[in-house]
């Protein structure tokens, strides 16, 4: 009996203490959520050609081959890529969410120039004495989209997949009137058949900006990245194609504002 009474007393005391703790918690105000601090990466104040900037591309993400892909893309954009590798983390730097650009004495303007090509990049002066720049790729890394080139800089192949004879020739003529250059014009050499589509714009990674320029002239065109290594673009006309959009409407969207980084 003594044991039962003692247990009952302990249980009652425990419940009372628990109620007091819970009541105390209910009286406390929740800590306000921490607001992210956002900054805009400054724009360069000195014009430095991309060909003067030597870049090491370092992968700090789990995406295999990302450094090689980004290094190739930067080479297409005119930068001198020295090497591509995994981030050695010599300075024990935290992994960036998007990207970190490391530079040394005299490299600030070059770092800012490289930052114009990268979404949400942060800059870090690591004290190096050589003029090289490191671009460290985080798990959410993205290159900034290039504005599409002028039509006069784009060469396009125009292919017909429909039963309408002469369609590729007609559209090729219309594209040339808009300033495009055409190369091959005729039936699709791949023999594709897409009765539910309007048009396909086929391109390789190097030709992505040119592909977007072509797609502006065809409302509803589907962009398809294939394995080609050059900058050529195919416009494949499918069964639901009814014509190019008016030239005045085939315009690129405004240039994006400077990248913002939040932490």
Automatic annotation (TrEMBL):
What is the source species?
A: Allobranchiibius huperziae
PROSITE patterns (UniProt xref): PROKAR_LIPOPROTEIN (PS51257)
Q: Does the keyword Signal apply?
A: yes
| Keywords, ordered alphabetically | Signal
> InterPro entries under this entry?
LytR/CpsA/Psr_C, LytR/CpsA/Psr_CW_biosynth
Q: Where is the LytR/CpsA/Psr regulator C-terminal domain?
A: 53-141, 153-238
What residue stretch is flagged as signal peptide?
A: 1-23
Superkingdom field: Bacteria
Q: What is this protein called?
A: LytR/CpsA/Psr regulator C-terminal domain-containing protein
